[in-house]
Design goal:
By secondary structure, the chain is an alpha/beta fold. The chain is built from nine helices and ten strands. The two termini are about 15 Å apart.
Length: about 290
């Protein structure tokens, strides 16, 4: 498992690599622009070349981009659709430029419309964005919270992936699972047996070959609460015991996994948390008899 952290792009792409090194990350996640603003960050081809060349001399093995919070691929509002498409297309082009494993996307919210109509709109927009970029994949993230959100279960996420892939091809689609979201929607991510059942369900409904990324977040709320509130690793309801089980699931090994927790002073995950996740994984593997 390639363990790491979500890091800031403040100061430019080369600063990202410094933060990856500071946190000892094997995988990182970034925003391609300010997550709460529509204005895209402008990068030149030279920026991408410099990033790729500098990354070759580091331990970093995978970079993923998280889509900004403002977009709604399922919207029926023409202006929101235009902005969402432009923003997602920009993120995919940045992903192409830096060699990202994909752009993590929440499929959107239906608002006042039906789920069927919202899914059709989301799939159409995502296909347009893929057509406007070269090869960077879209990685659907499982969601938690409002029942209006698309992608709250693996049946719906499987449908979204399948119908988007009919035009783009399966190599440009994937799945990201978030430990806090899974916990919030009722999955048992705290025991070896529960995590095995989760992996079985992913295999049956989507295919584990489509699992491209993992978000590692503890939860401030009880299992099944349907509340998406992150806590530091080991300090929430999932706890260290839970992460030993989750991180040591053998079918998740090799997948890039990044923490999105608030971190010290709200500045994001730090080196100590990344190293804690690695230690919990080792302890979990040892408890399974594999380490």
């Amino acid at each position: 498992m390639l363990i790491g952290a979500h890091v800031s792009t403040s100061g430019g792409l080369l600063k990202v690599l410094e933060r990856a090194q500071e946190t000892t990350s094997d995988a990182i996640q970034i925003f391609s622009q300010s997550p709460r603003m529509w204005r895209p960050t402008k990068y030149a081809d030279e920026d991408f070349t410099a990033f790729r060349e500098a990354a070759r001399g580091t331990r970093l093995q995978a970079v993923m981009i998280h889509m900004i919070y403002l977009i709604n691929p399922a919207t029926d509002d023409p202006e929101m659709r235009r902005k969402s498409l432009e923003s997602l297309s920009h993120a995919l082009r940045v992903g192409d430029g830096i060699g990202a494993i994909g752009v993590v996307v929440h499929p959107g919210a239906l608002k006042t419309d039906t789920r069927a109509n919202a899914k059709r709109r989301a799939i159409a927009l995502l296909n347009e964005a893929l057509a406007e970029s070269e090869s960077c994949p879209i990685i659907y993230e499982n969601t938690a919270g409002s029942p209006q959100l698309l992608g709250r279960d693996f049946d719906e996420t499987a449908e979204l992936i399948e119908k988007t892939a009919t035009r783009a091809g399966p190599e440009r689609l994937g799945l990201c699972i978030d430990s806090c979201h899974l916990h919030a929607t009722g999955y048992d991510v705290t025991t070896v047996e529960g995590v095995a059942e989760l992996a079985d369900e992913i295999e049956a409904k989507i295919g584990l070959e489509q699992l491209r990324a993992i978000h590692l977040n503890d939860s401030r709320d009880a299992r099944g609460s349907n509340r998406d509130r992150h806590a530091a690793i080991g300090k929430g309801e999932i706890g260290r015991r839970g992460f030993r089980a989750f991180l040591s699931e053998l079918r998740f090994q090799g997948v890039p996994a990044v923490s999105e927790t608030p971190g010290p002073g709200g500045k994001g995950p730090d080196k100590a948390e990344v190293q804690l996740m690695r230690r919990l994984r080792r302890e979990g593997l040892k408890a399974r008899g594999g380490g």
